[in-house]
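seq as requested:
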Amino acid sequence: MYGAKKNYLLQRGVTMNKRTWRPISLGTLAALLLSLITVIVGPLVAASATTFDMTGNTLAFNHTNLTATITRVATSNGVITYTAANSFTAGQLVTITGVTSNPVNRFNLANVIINTASSTTFTVLNAATGTYTSGGTATQLNDYRNVVGTGVAGGDQVLYYNVATISAGNTVDAVVTTTTSNTTVSAFDGESAVPGKPGYFQPNLTLSGTNGKAVFHFAFYEHGTYTGSNTGTPVVLNNVTISSVDLDNGGSGYQFTEFGGFQQYTLTKNTMLTPAVVTGTRLERFTTRETANLADVPQDMVQVTYLTLSSIDVAVGLVGSSGAIGYFGISFSALPWGASITDPVVGSPTTIGPRAITGITTSGGTVTYTTSANHGFSVGQSVTVTGCATSGYNGSSMIITTVASAKKFAVTKAQTGGSCPAGSATVTIPGVVTPAIGVSNVDNPANVAPTTSNTTAILTAGTATVITKNDLGAASFVDGDSNPFYKVKITGLPARGSFQHRIAGTWQNVTSNEEILTSDIDLENLRFTGSDAVHIKFRVHDGLVYSTDEYDLGITITNRSQTITFPEPGTRAVGVTFDSGVSSDSGLDVELVTTQTGVCTIVNGVQIRTEAEGECVVTASQRGNDTYSKATSVERTVHVSGRLAQAVTFADPGRQILDSNPKTIASNATADSNLTVQLVSQTLDVCTVDGLNISLIAAGPCEVWAKQEGNATYASATTIKHNFDVILPSWTITFNNNRASSGTVPPVSEVTKLLSVNAPTNSGNLQLTGYSFAGWNTQADGKGSVTYQPGDAITPTADLALYAKWSASITYDANGATSGDVPAVQAVVPGINTLALNSGTLRKSSHTFAGWNTLATGLGTSYAVGADFTVSGDVTLYAKWTSVITFSGNGESAGYVPPGSTPAVDSNVALPANTGTIRTGPLEKADHSFGGWNTNQQGTGTNYMPGVDTFPLTGNVTLYARWISTITYDANGGTGDAPTAQRGVDGNVRLDANPSNLTKGTFIFDHWSLTDDGSADNYGSGATFALSGNTTLFAIYAQRSYLRIVTPPKISQNANSITCSRGTFAYMDKGVTPVLASPTIANVFLLVGGTVFASAKPAVASSTVSWLKTDLATVRSGTALTCRVVANQGGLTPLTSESTDSPLAISLRAQQTKELNSIEATYQSDVNAAIAKQKAALAANPKLVMVFNATFKSEMSAAQSKKDAAIVASRIKRASEVAKAGIALIWP
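struct tokens:
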């Protein structure tokens, strides 16, 4: 697979777990994040690989070696000395061919180590003996050696030495493996495509079909570690750009190149390459459209970029006719595109002139120049005029506005007057600008989102433990197009504990959605400390996109850690099996794993077998269980060699303070072979080496290796690797839980002087019952000058102790305020705090703000604004509202008005009695009595009696003395029951409305009066009375009620019967007012001689009643007959019956009846007029209800007297007439 991670065979008991050390400078990190245009990564290998940043470095594939011609060979004590002029180096490999000797081939050797070298001789350690005859060539393998074949056939392998030197001692080798399909590699690595570029990898292909290619697999290793299949220590290369050049057409085949797993490709905008995804793969093919063989030109080049890679497949091929030849060039660098691509091309300017000027004219701000010959100028051109006598006509870069003729042109110019008889004009035309061609960057179109799986880790409680890439899914990371595991995004933080990322040497809390490079994780810059099981959510990134799914790291906690013991295996001979000596103090089985199975293998779980010479890295790990947390993996290197063993001593420098820059420390590294030890820095942006000294130049992790690669006598020693922190002079920040009832504090933080660190979160879930965590304060009481909230920058100036700040919230409640705003919730610390002011001007209608209270009723503990308040947890304080009662005498005539009440909260308040003082008596008001305190000045509100009632105070209020008046009812000489005295406040009251049984002689109760004679202010029962003090009302009496005859009964006769007409009656109320209700007729009787006739006609409904004369046969002629009508008053009170007889006997003449009726009608009208006048007066003055004043009484009396006198006179007259007729007259 193109760009894929090589599938190394793992001899294992457990998955590998070895960190990768290669820091990236802050500048490089920033570049990675800010621009994926030039910084792109590719596939990773197992975590045991060293990482090299290729920014600014080039991989050079030089297919040449140093050679020397041998002229003599001598042997002595196991050393062969070759005489040859050379520039070889001791310790390098050399191959010797072409020597003739006796015995044959005795001195021809392959891949042996040069023991010593001078300009004329070199030696190797070999016991061969014999006689040199002649000839021979020695080739020092500086640049390459053929491992399998020569690279032209499928399966061939070529090892390139020193393809990159990152720093002293840090060099990279590359193994190139060839695979062919329908092609022949006619030249493995020459210079056909781009002569003069030996560092390019330049194969030549011949097509054997119509579509063929060769795939070259590049795998990168630490220098000198690869000796054969399944050997070598892989390295990771970051920020690699590969340029495929000279993709053209030799005449019968279109060249192409293929890449996979890259982040981005770049082509010129006028490219002759066509990109397309190869069907069924995730490879991108770039095929030329050229039809001719061209030189190396930008439009025939493609650049692909990788963020990271350890191995990569590069394919080159042809589409065309069989036999087509293609020359290819691959450069592992970002080649320049050329000036024509990136810069515009500007042509040289041209000029017209100069043209001689003979004169000028001016008009409206325009100057027209006249030339001696045709000028050839055009509108819009830039003209320069010089030499005019009047300088105002001279000028440069003036724009021609008009061309009047071939000899005249004009410009805008305000000059007037003067002349220009001998000037000159020159036009300058700018050169043509050809725009830059430019390049286009395209993300890998075949890219797919990566996947991984959920992971688990067992950690030790309370111990800061490094989180590895495997913990975040590296072991199961899968990317369909072989992109690398580049970074992670933390999408879900642990609920508890401290999850931190070390940035620039300072541990800082990981934030939600924070992105962390895997290279940073390899540097052990991610850690977790906690005491509870938690989950961390994450997504993985392949350099282009994040995984679609979110994954889970489940952390479980144990209380016991474990440590692996793994002794250094040293140097071992080939073909031996030995015990590793690995163990864990937990007693759990330790598992071993190696990738260099060509050098050594793992047998029986804990034994190591050496297979061939070389170096074999073995990693020991233990994942932990329910009792023990996972152990830190331990890595050891087995040196397999037949040479003598040697050991390097190199003490760990420990943490270093960069108190000078640079700061040099001695390594004191030695080898027991007495060979010179080489120091190698893996972190050149932090530390460099100079001989055996280490030079510290920046803060960060410094990794230094001490190496001794051996010679012909000694095998290479185990490399001693130390990684130590270099810190700037710093301050220590410690965190105190400040009486927390549970949880853990963050770890100690060290902050470089003059720098800052972000305050940690409460990741350890510190808790104090009743309080909330409110940051970190400089004092234990929480009242220090600074409180740091999580994420705030802390810039200490000395060692700093920070205390968990515990905050309780004081919430202020307006408690019914009608306006204003409550103070904001106040975060306070345990102990004494200052309460808020009424800063929001709270107001409540009819109340006064009186501070704060612990109860809404105001009956709890009260506090003034700004007062000290001792906090013991979250609390709500309520605005305290008070009000007062003001007392009013309300028109008192004497006495003492009580003072206002003491301000109090809304509650039931006792009221003062009306007792007065020693000096002043109680409140008094003439003709009134005190009746309590009332909410209304008129006394009609709610009334409260002192000593009986309490007042529900709900705001400022005035209570008024309630004055009571009494109405006393006086019978005024009558008998019966006078109403009970009536009490009330001044104002209109309704008098007693019950029917009175008072009588006085033959008179009955009529109404009430303020005077006993009824002469003024009279009131009927239930009438409205304007009460204004104690009052006595006297009973006034009137005549009883009776029935009055309106139309008297009449008696008449005819030949057959006697008929009585009933007449009509009216009910007179107390002898004054007629009531319209008709009285009920009960009976009609016929009286014979004053005696009721036996044949009575009771309760008849008709208006007349008749008796047949035949029924009166016994009545003597001349007997007086009379009708008697008995009427009831119709249900009105009092219940009485009245009766009347016909006024005339039937023998009365008609004129007598008519006369009486006329008298009745005449005088009744006078009576009715008096009554009408009285009614009108009553309507105007209701106090005269049913009572005549003196004037009305006299008028009524006079009218009645006239009527009575007329009736008496008529009766006398009728009596006389009746006597003459012999008929008796009967009156009631």
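The radius of gyration is 65 Å.
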